[in-house]
Amino acid sequence: MPAVNITLQPRPELDPSVDHEIQAIVSGALQGETCNTDLAAGPWDFDTRPGYGPGSSMGDVIPTGSPRQGELPREYREASEAELAERVRAAKATLGDRVVVLGHFYQREEVVVHADYVGDSFQLANAALEHPDAEAIVFCGVHFMAETADLLSRPEQAVILPNLAAGCSMADMADIDQVEEAWEQLADIYGDMDAKDAEGLVPVVPVTYMNSSATIKGFVGRHGGIVCTSSNARTVLEWAFERGRRVLFFPDQHLGRNTAKAMGVPLEQMPMWNPRKPYGGSSAETLEDARVILWHGFCSVHRRFSVDQIEKARAEHAGVRVIVHPECPMEVVDAADESGSTDYIRKAIEAATEPTTFAIGTEVNLVQRLAAEHPQHTIFCLDPVVCPCSTMYRIHPGYLAWVLEGLVAGEVRNRISVPASVADPARLALERMLAAKPPAAPAADWEHAS
């Protein structure tokens, strides 16, 4: 699915900027609640501190050695929103086709307005392929997304992440040492992990969500596995079950559980693997009977959504249409009318021909932007507390101006490079995903898409 080029029309009746809303809440100019008043500060205030920063992932434990961003020069920290916007526009105009700027759906509005393409992580990585002559790809997203762009772009192209502290807490929940150890422990139970049984199936096929590091994608590629997105997870699991008795799915337990459940896999055959416990905390008998072994990981944005929020939306809005992301917990997905990827949510709203009330369970920047783009509908985030993705929010126009003006001056700042030893098997896992094409969905069959 290609990335989309979104032109946002200013609508004074609904400001698409989450940052403006947070500033108004913190200053007392607007009634509302945010999960952390520090969100009103510039992200450079947190660059020297350990942790993911304020927002949805602020309670998650960041791994030792996670990338840190160096100090942003004062001129960018003290510039006004209007000044930064003009500096970004001027730098882009000077660079022309030498640079392409990619913006994830969850980015703050002040960054998205400068993006040449807006989309999800894989759409944007593919968008980069459409510009093989660009010298630099500036990826306004998080670290694993920039790595994926580097995997798929030409070697001479520089992939740039404006703020190195923009990681992903979910991706960090499965590190390579833990995954290698889990594989060894599973081999204790299943035997030779490459040996095929009488039906030609190996004991386990590893499947990693796109939201994982290049190192994890490389592990999957080396062990006969595959990458998935939230859009094609079912197709990928079908591919894996054609090759293995079981699937080890990481890092997001909820996407794995929701997808496998929709395919008819019983919950009792989906044990959780806790990397901090021997054999993931399960018995040998449980693992023998398993079909999908779920890694103990999650997205802190989507874990905020609850059945209570859905019930409240239904009580207050007659006929509300509830759509949530499949990274939400199972009970939330079950209670919603539909679940689907960020691109699915966007298209569902675009396809609604009659004025509709939508309650959306995904990151608030996308929800607020959709509400501004579609004033004929009533669109709101299920979570009443304004709590953006901590790490996406680390990308700020100040950093974007800094890296673009660096390119104008002939300096590449914050380049993301994946070493060849990791890149080659990671590309193999991505190529397997690209070859596993999902069937075309019936036009009218929108319910519970994934």
Automatic annotation (TrEMBL):
<feature type="binding site">
    <location>
        <position position="389"/>
    </location>
    <ligand>
        <name>[4Fe-4S] cluster</name>
    </ligand>
</feature>
<keyword id="KW-0408">Iron</keyword>
<feature type="binding site">
    <location>
        <position position="121"/>
    </location>
    <ligand>
        <name>iminosuccinate</name>
    </ligand>
</feature>
<feature type="binding site">
    <location>
        <position position="168"/>
    </location>
    <ligand>
        <name>[4Fe-4S] cluster</name>
    </ligand>
</feature>
<keyword id="KW-0662">Pyridine nucleotide biosynthesis</keyword>
<keyword id="KW-0004">4Fe-4S</keyword>
<feature type="binding site">
    <location>
        <position position="299"/>
    </location>
    <ligand>
        <name>[4Fe-4S] cluster</name>
    </ligand>
</feature>
<feature type="binding site">
    <location>
        <position position="342"/>
    </location>
    <ligand>
        <name>iminosuccinate</name>
    </ligand>
</feature>
<keyword id="KW-0963">Cytoplasm</keyword>
<comment type="function">
    <text>Catalyzes the condensation of iminoaspartate with dihydroxyacetone phosphate to form quinolinate.</text>
</comment>
<feature type="binding site">
    <location>
        <position position="104"/>
    </location>
    <ligand>
        <name>iminosuccinate</name>
    </ligand>
</feature>
<feature type="binding site">
    <location>
        <position position="230"/>
    </location>
    <ligand>
        <name>iminosuccinate</name>
    </ligand>
</feature>
<protein>
    <recommendedName>
        <fullName>Quinolinate synthase</fullName>
        <ecNumber>2.5.1.72</ecNumber>
    </recommendedName>
</protein>
<keyword id="KW-0808">Transferase</keyword>
<keyword id="KW-0411">Iron-sulfur</keyword>
<feature type="binding site">
    <location>
        <begin position="325"/>
        <end position="327"/>
    </location>
    <ligand>
        <name>iminosuccinate</name>
    </ligand>
</feature>
<dbReference type="InterPro" id="IPR023515">
    <property type="entry name" value="Quinolinate_synth_A_type3"/>
</dbReference>
<feature type="binding site">
    <location>
        <begin position="209"/>
        <end position="211"/>
    </location>
    <ligand>
        <name>iminosuccinate</name>
    </ligand>
</feature>
<dbReference type="InterPro" id="IPR003473">
    <property type="entry name" value="NadA"/>
</dbReference>
<dbReference type="InterPro" id="IPR036094">
    <property type="entry name" value="NadA_sf"/>
</dbReference>
<comment type="pathway">
    <text>Cofactor biosynthesis; NAD(+) biosynthesis; quinolinate from iminoaspartate: step 1/1.</text>
</comment>
<keyword id="KW-0479">Metal-binding</keyword>
<feature type="region of interest" description="Disordered">
    <location>
        <begin position="49"/>
        <end position="71"/>
    </location>
</feature>
<dbReference type="Pfam" id="PF02445">
    <property type="entry name" value="NadA"/>
</dbReference>
<comment type="similarity">
    <text>Belongs to the quinolinate synthase family. Type 3 subfamily.</text>
</comment>
